[in-house]
Design brief:
The protein has 337 residues and is α+β, with helices and mostly antiparallel strands. It contains nine helices and 20 strands. The longest helix is centred in the C-terminal third of the chain and has 19 residues, at 308-326. Its cofactor is FAD.
Amino acid sequence: MHLQKDVSLLPYNTFGIDKKAKYFSIANNIHDVIEAIQFSKKNNIPLVVLGGGSNILLTKDLEALLLKIDIQGISLIKETSESVWIEVGAGVNWHSLVLYCIEKEWAGVENLSLIPGTVGASPMQNIGAYGIEIKEVFENLTAINRDTLSIEKFDWAQCEFGYRESVFKNKLKNKYIISSVCFKLNKNPVFNTNYGAIQDTLQSMQVEELSIKAISDAVIKIRQSKLPDPKQIGNAGSFFKNPTVETAKFEALKKEYPLIPGYPLQDGVKIPAAWLIEQAGWKGKRFGNIGVHQNQPLVLVNYGDGDGAEIKILSEKIQASVEEKFGILLSPEVNFL
């Protein structure tokens, strides 16, 4: 394990926040991960795990060892006439994996194109977009137990997937470090084009024959039109989760706000957080070097030299404002460090 001291984390977070880590190391394999765990225990210093840095907000310098997971590799481990099973290193870039699967004509992840971050974070967050969640293609994962240093496998049920949730964000938070993920993909695609603007975008692209590449291209086009490029403006994508409310609560809101959008679920109605934030008056608001994006109010941005603590305060003001107006408390999707 190659250890560095007092390292700027500016290149390692998409918000573009310049904070330091007391110690920094990159893990290229499981052995590096185990060494990092041992170092943190021996020196009584917290161990913070980093993937693509696209879902974190740095609010201070970290008196910790920040371990960037960079375990690579995509391996075909099983194949039938209908399906393939692949094992992917936790450090593989998520969108690179999607493009790899499209090239191989393996279906199942095309709707998740251009989601930032790494493969290791995908089951932790149960990432999802345009009608698909990672749990639909997930088979199992391998992780290192921080207490025992043993290498363990988790199947689908053990991960306890929920909306942008898994067991690793709840009762097993900071207990394991994911090293690889196994996915089951389809050779015979079932196209999912019913969500959002996919169908309209496919028509505008004049797609004559539907394919997983066409769906991926449409999703990329939609995401690029709605979400700012972190290389241009610092951000972490959607800052808040879309809240789910009871049906009775939604009906009451509908009477007061006839235009409120809602998507019925088994356990209630999901309301777009972006709509709530915009109605509360935050869209496009700028406060010095930080603000709310002018096109997508779900995205908080760093225009340059912004401070993570300021963005956290802004997010709390938005939460309070939306709760006061609608009686709904938004939950951050971004992790504060």
